[in-house]
Amino acid sequence: MQNKNLYDLFDARFPEDRTQTAFEGPEIATYSFSDISEASAQMAHLLCASGAEPGDRVAVQVAKSVEAVILYLACLRAGLVYLPLNTAYKAAEIEYFLGDATPAIVVCDPASLQEIAGIAEKTGVAKVLTLDGEGRGSLTDHAKKQDTSFETVARGADDLAAILYTSGTTGRSKGAMLTHDNLASNALSLHRAWHFEKGDVLLHALPIFHVHGLFVALHCALLNASKVIFLTKFDAETVLDNLPQSTVFMGVPTFYVRLLAEPGLTKEACRNMRLFTAGSAPLLEETFTAFETRTGHVILERYGMTEAGMITTNPYEGARKAGTVGFPLDNDVRIAGEDGKIVKDGEIGILEIKGPNVFKGYWQMPEKTAAEFRPDGYFITGDMCRKGEDGYYRIVGRSKDLIISGGYNVYPKEIESFIDEMPGVAESAVVGRAHPDFGEAVVAFVVPDGTVKSLKPADVTAFIKEKLSNFKVPKQVYIVDDLPRNTMGKVQKNQLRDRAMADT
Ligand code: MCA
Ligand code: AMP
């Protein structure tokens, strides 16, 4: 077997002088490339000594820190499958992920140790380790005692490197299985497409439990042996303070909306910048234009999804067009109708893709996997797309019932099912409404069943907040007598969206 371990690809590109800085930032210590390789070796030893064997999953729900990045690299080195979890997830959500993925180890914040240990016991996870936002916890305490060299475990191209859960339009979340080759091929494509060059400094403000912050941003920097200015969270002022020392910045549209609200966003602040990229949700044309006017920089919008990494990108050289996602990266794309028939150029259809970046399938869900692939191997993205006469692809909507709020995906079905279980509720419908900061906001329409006296919007919000992640909590709840339905009995979500919009 030819070794395709992704870590080895990074390691081969680390600078000859490993004392060079890999990570630094206003809230963190400075880490050299040798710090990264030694600490990841120590953690890899610890994970193995804790009983994990190649192919085992390591579930991780921790605050953003360089140690969390090192943990990811340690998992790659030990041939383990990294399973990052959004820090917003609450106990019930975590229980599902642990039960489904059956990891050998779970790493959590020390503050949630008691709760996670309880869930781990219930779901049969053998080992729980802790890591806080400052890099402290039993993980690093024990790792420090381990050897600083580790022979990276050989992996085949098709072996799993990570599982990332994506919510589903129906039923529970699905774990997208990503192989070493999926991640490596996409990272190399982006590194090339975005012209990463010697001396680039990446300003990193994204969370590291999703594809955008973990793979798109970090992989480009690691492949380039670039210094990363690593911010522990997005804060517009901190980003502006660090822009003059940076050359590349990647963000979701909300980041750009918030940066534009800062008077400090000027051409001068961006004087050393080479590239701003945006994605995870549609970038509004007004944001694109305002950013260019203020900074002189044209944001490069790209499009992707958890199951495939990045799929298309606007060109680095050549026109970057607002409202478009550019051209396919190193994957084949086609636009087809629901029936699978390819539509004519210029017509709207669903984007289908095939290539080395496309995932291996959903973890232990062969039927769901099969349902999302065409017989000839194309994956059905569920995104409505149109190829313009200029050859640029445009994402014009979604065939899947999905809301993207500040770059986080929210599936209405999950929230509706949850609200429907609330005492006093007959049924509910959840839709997205345009939101100036988050792009889209979650809004719920709730029909009471009359068993609870005067059910209020705040009751519904409180009920959801207790059990589901904050970003899934509706920004507005309407209590209504009934839901509009068509003759087939299907809820008319467009009418609900119009009603919610009329209120803004
Ligand atoms: C926080 N809140 C949100 C969101 N984030 N509500 C809706 N949508 C959100 N995205 C809640 C908070 O919990 C809080 O609720 C209230 O809204 C206000 O929070 P605020 O302080 O404004 O939020 P924040 O902490 O500043 O976070 C906003 C953020 C963050 C920085 C935009 O959401 C973020 O980092 N988003 C990036 C997501 C991302 O990386 N997506 C990539 C996925 P309360 O007041 O009740 O506490 S990868 C992907 O999509 C594909 C592959 C791709 O193409 O990249
Ligand atoms: P996720 O499931 O978190 O990987 O989110 C992937 C989804 O985000 C895609 O299927 C698209 O619907 C959406 N998305 C990502 N980038 C863009 C973009 N540039 N424009 C429009 N939608 C996007």
How many strands appear in the DSSP assignment? 25
Rg result: 23 Å
Query: What proportion of the residues is helical, as a percent range?
Result: 25-40%
Report the average pLDDT across residues. 96
CATH class annotation of the largest domain: Alpha Beta
Label the overall shape. globular
Order of strands across the widest beta sheet?
A: 2-1-10-9-11-12-13-14-15
Give a quick set of tags describing it.
single chain; 504 residues; alpha/beta; Rossmann fold; Luciferase, domain 3; GMP Synthetase, Chain A, domain 3; 9-stranded mixed beta sheet; 4-stranded parallel beta sheet; 15 helices; binds methylmalonyl-coenzyme A; binds adenosine monophosphate
Q: What do you see in this structure?
A:
It is a single chain. This protein has helices at 6-13, 33-49, 66-77, 91-101, 113-123, 138-143, 180-193, 211-223, 236-242, 253-260, 285-295, 366-371, 412-420, 457-467, 493-502; strands spanning 21-25, 28-32, 57-61, 81-84, 105-108, 127-130, 160-166, 174-179, 201-204, 227-230, 248-251, 275-278, 300-305, 309-313, 327-328, 332-336, 348-354, 361-362, 379-387, 393-398, 403-405, 408-410, 425-435, 439-448, 476-479. It has 3 domains: 6-14 and 29-188, 3-Layer(aba) Sandwich (Rossmann fold); 299-398, Luciferase, domain 3, CATH 2.30.38.10; 403-502, ANL, C-terminal domain (GMP Synthetase, Chain A, domain 3, 2-Layer Sandwich). The strands form 6 sheets. The protein has a 9-stranded mixed β-sheet with strand order 2-1-10-9-11-12-13-14-15. A 4-stranded parallel β-sheet has the order 4-3-5-6, with helices on both faces. 31% of the residues lie in helices and 26% in strands. The protein is an alpha/beta fold and 504 residues long. The longest helix has 17 residues, at 33-49. It binds methylmalonyl-coenzyme A and adenosine monophosphate (AMP).
